[in-house]
Write a structure and sequence with these properties.
Mean pLDDT of chain A: 87
Helix content of chain A: 55-70%
Oligomer: heterodimer
Strand content of chain A: 5-15%
Structural class of chain B: alpha/beta
Strand order of the largest sheet of chain B: 6-7-8-3-9-10
Radius of gyration of chain A: 27 Å
Largest interface: A-B, 17 and 22 residues
Order of helices and strands of chain B: EEEHEEHEHHHEHEHEEHH
Number of helices of chain A: 22
Structural class of chain A: alpha/beta
Mean pLDDT of chain B: 92
Strand content of chain B: 15-25%
Low-confidence stretches of chain A: 242-250
Distance between the termini of chain A: 43 Å
Strand order of the largest sheet of chain A: 7-6-8-5-9
Helix content of chain B: 25-40%
């Protein structure tokens, strides 16, 4: 057995979750799409706009479609005063269901409309009612084409389900996304290969059933359906979970959220371990978008996660002023509690601030040491940022304070932003102050003399109901003020480096050990 | 008994049949002939409402067909057409049994009835379990006839039923059907573009043209017809062919 970089049980559990989600989405699409296809095949007036609409939905990128269901469900929940879970299974199911509609409806319509008109005339001449014609003639003859549509839908859905990770639904995408962020290519590969294998297996079994229908071979049909049942059964087969064993199973589940970068993975696992030690069952929602994460904790979809004061200041409170760190924290704590009953437990002890960084030699050659100097030289420089910086108020504040005019400003995923700087395809990046790569790549961070960039203290946020749970608070309290910037950089670097790379889990264990050495 | 009262059907603004009135008595064998586009198929399909008429009325046994439930109307009228339309996913027996099945006939009678119908259309009983793809064109149309007859209809509508068959099979199947018509006391309406076929099989020939009935006579009288040149032209072709054949057969 080759080393997969993660326990086999974890892989199996992710594969099960992946398959279960995909299966439910295809069934949902069938329940909606099949009747719609039958109606569309009968009436062009209904069919043409319907197929147009479904094709249009298909053009929405999968990632965006998944993300859009989050605010949609949130709004729906607020409007109807029903507790609709806006993260996790439900939005993933709905988005994937919508995605699977097209092949099912299109093939359904083609199957019915493609039947030889001579047979329709014969059926009508015999005095079949519309329903009898459908059941005795159209469906049996259209079955192979209909099934081909289901096959396409299943393969698409299994592929797209990897994106469900971004709205907090576990899938094989967990491996791909976390692997991309920590540059653990083995994890990415395992995730991709596993998803592809699932798609191929399901496609093969459905092809078998399809051949059975097309050739009217009872044997093929029976074995195909038996294999399908076996796959469904495998989805529900219990996989032993080393991490979850013990007496904790009766406890309430605490959901720990994380955004999509190494530090967040490490801290989420640190929090997870502490809660588990306190006897809780813990689930993780990794790879949440920045805006999604806060709304999720406010809505109670996740119980706890780490955010940064400056991010909350501008994105949640909508403030554009830059007060001193302590004042910002105090105001934040008060405002979040008032607005959303979200409790800010406190700062972990380090900042992960946006900071403009350049390679040492380049900064020296251009004589740049602060943002004012950078702005003066900016017309010849290319800026690489993370995915959200250019749309954030911080960028507006920097532009207002220093008036830089970069030759090019391009967003990257964080990992590739550093790569771009290293490879010389960018001159300056918006680095993160806690990033281990600053020290490792020998980068120079530029000073901010006009105070345009706010502070970004890492703070622990608790959802309203979690904040009322004294045991949760007690378990997490020791983390407050416990992590220094140097410790965090080192932990981050363990995960981000190429040689001697550690998993976020290993880094979090190391971090836990380091913290307990520090007097609390 | 089938009655047409001033029946009109238009495709767009063009009337394909134009205020046609007509009565077809029980037990008669009527052939509808005419050029392509003369409206003969439209007239036929109006009877089992595969085509809905624009004005006028059609009644079967005194009942206006517009007031009858569509499925019920069609189930009591046999329909055979050039395309045959056997369902490829059903065996010969299943195809034949469809009509009775739609009327919830007791399955106890199934085997016996299918054997009876197969022999009625001169097919061996062991064909019952074959799929339509395994039949010749003539066999397939015989099954088509058996399927149409299975629900014991009083009326048979036939739209070029022999059109796609080779001449030998065509003649043989035509004669078989004529015998069935007598034997089962059917009311038969046959659409054909072949005047010779009409003359030899039917008791009454209705020639359609321009949406109107151009002639409506028994075969023997039609041969003497002197009127509309469109009709005489059609008869002359047959007569001319017969004369030439006779000349060929005469010893030199």
């Amino acid at each position: 057995m080759p080393d997969l970089g993660l326990p086999l049980a974890d892989l199996l559990r992710l594969a099960q979750a992946h398959l279960f989600l995909s299966g439910c989405a295809v069934i949902l699409a069938l329940l909606l799409g099949f009747p719609a296809a039958l109606l569309a095949a009968r009436s062009r007036r209904f069919g043409t706009p319907l197929l147009g609409l479904i094709s249009l939905l298909q053009t929405i990128p999968g990632l965006a479609l998944l993300a859009l269901f989050y605010p949609l469900l949130l709004l729906l929940g607020q409007a109807t005063h029903v507790a609709i879970p806006a993260l996790g299974f439900l939005p993933a199911l709905l988005a994937l269901g919508v995605y699977a509609l097209l092949p099912i409806v299109r093939n359904g319509v083609a199957a019915i409309q493609g039947i030889d008109p001579v047979l329709i005339e014969a059926a009508n001449g015999l005095g079949m009612t519309g329903r009898q014609r459908l059941l005795m003639v159209e469906l049996p003859l259209g079955a192979p084409v209909i099934l081909a549509g289901i096959r396409t839908a299943a393969v698409w859905t299994i592929g797209t389900a990897t994106l469900a990770t971004t709205i907090g639904q576990p899938s094989l995408g967990d491996l791909i996304f976390s692997g991309l962020q920590t540059e653990d290519w083995r994890r990415v590969l395992v995730g991709c290969v596993a998803a592809a294998a699932l798609a191929l297996i399901v496609d093969g079994v459905l092809a078998h059933v399809e051949a059975g229908l097309a050739r009217r071979s009872r044997w093929r049909l029976v074995t195909g359906v038996a294999l399908l049942v076996a796959i469904i059964a495998a989805t529900f087969l219990p996989v032993p979970d080393a991490a979850r064993s013990g007496a904790a199973s009766a406890q309430r589940v605490v959901v720990v959220g994380a955004k999509n970068f190494s530090e967040q993975y490490i801290l989420a696992r640190l929090i997870e371990d502490r809660l588990r030690d306190a006897g809780y069952r813990v689930e993780r929602r990794d790879n949440l978008g920045s805006a999604v994460a806060y709304r999720a904790v406010a809505a109670g979809d996740i119980d706890v996660y780490v955010d940064y004061s400056g991010t909350l200041w501008s994105n949640v409170l909508g403030r554009t002023d830059v007060p001193p760190a302590a004042e910002m924290l105090a105001t934040l704590g008060k405002e979040l509690a008032q607005r959303d009953e979200v409790r800010m437990l406190g700062s972990l002890g380090f900042e992960n601030a946006y900071t403009f960084a350049m390679t040492g030699p380049r900064a020296q050659a251009l004589g740049i040491s602060d943002l004012a100097g950078l702005a003066r030289a900016s017309s010849d420089l290319r800026l690489a940022t993370d995915l959200e910086f250019l749309n954030r108020p911080e960028w507006a504040a920097v532009k207002a304070s220093y008036q830089p005019v970069f030759k090019e400003a391009r967003p990257y995923s964080p990992t590739f932003m550093y790569r771009a700087l290293g490879a010389g395809s960018a001159d300056v990046i918006t680095a993160f102050s806690s990033d281990g790569r600053i020290a490792a790549m020998d980068l120079v961070t530029l000073a901010d003399p006009r105070g345009a960039l706010p502070h970004y203290d890492a703070v622990l946020l608790l959802a309203p109901h979690a904040a009322r749970d004294a045991a949760v608070v007690a378990a997490l309290q020791p983390l407050i003020g416990a992590i220094s910037i140097e410790t965090m950089r080192e932990a981050n670097w363990m995960v981000d480096r190429d040689e001697g790379k550690r998993t976020p889990q290993e880094a979090s264990r190391w971090l836990a050990g380091k913290i307990s050495l520090t007097p609390m | 008994m089938i009655n047409f009262a001033q029946v009109t059907k238009r495709y767009g603004t063009h009337p394909i049949i134009d205020e046609i009135s007509l009565e077809i008595g029980r037990g008669s064998f009527v052939a509808l002939v005419g050029q392509s586009g003369a409206g003969k198929t439209t007239l036929l399909k109006a009877i089992n409402r595969l085509v809905d008429i624009d004005s006028g009325a059609i009644s079967v046994d005194g009942e206006d067909i517009a007031t009858l439930p569509l499925a019920a109307l069609r189930r009591r009228i046999g329909y055979v057409f050039q395309g045959v339309g056997l369902f490829p996913h059903m065996t010969v027996a299943e195809n034949i049994w469809l009509g009775p099945r739609l009327q919830d006939a007791p399955t106890a009678e199934r085997a016996e009835r299918i054997a009876q119908l197969l022999s009625l259309v001169s097919l061996p009983a062991d064909l019952a379990d074959r799929l339509p793809a395994q039949l010749s064109g003539g066999q397939a149309q015989r099954v088509g006839f058996a399927r149409a007859l299975a629900a014991s209809p009083a009326i048979m509508l036939m739209d070029e039923p022999f059109g796609a068959l080779d001449p030998l099979t065509r003649d043989e199947l035509g004669r078989s059907y004529r015998a069935l018509h007598e034997h089962m006391k059917l009311t038969s309406i046959l659409v054909t573009h072949d005047m010779a076929e009409a003359l030899l099989l039917s008791d009454r020939i209705i020639v359609l043209g321009g949406g109107q009935i151009l002639a409506d006579l028994p075969p023997r009288d039609l041969l003497q017809f002197r009127g509309d040149p469109r009709v005489t032209a059609m008869i002359d072709v047959v007569r001319d062919q017969a004369d030439r054949l006779e000349a060929l057969a005469r010893p030199c």
